[in-house]
User: Fold this.
Amino acid sequence: MRKAQEYRPRLDARKVKAFQARLLAWFRQNGRDLPWRRTRDPYKILVSEVMLQLFPRRGETIPSARRAVASGSRCPSFMHSSTSTCGSM
Assistant:
């Protein structure tokens, strides 16, 4: 029996670069300024992403994410948040 060939799309590097440039230009003009886009801290970004899943409307997400990230002084990492010493966020 022959092994199925893996599908590998052919991507033209110039087209990819052009698409990336157009997408980034669009985002600079239309992207929303959200607090979690101003940090490189993976923990804060992940907490914010979880908040987006819990509260799909941005009006609810931003205050909830800020509270959760602010509680980072009590729960600075996932290891800490898994213990009961952090209290509720």
In short: The chain has a mean pLDDT of 76. The chain has four helices and no strands.
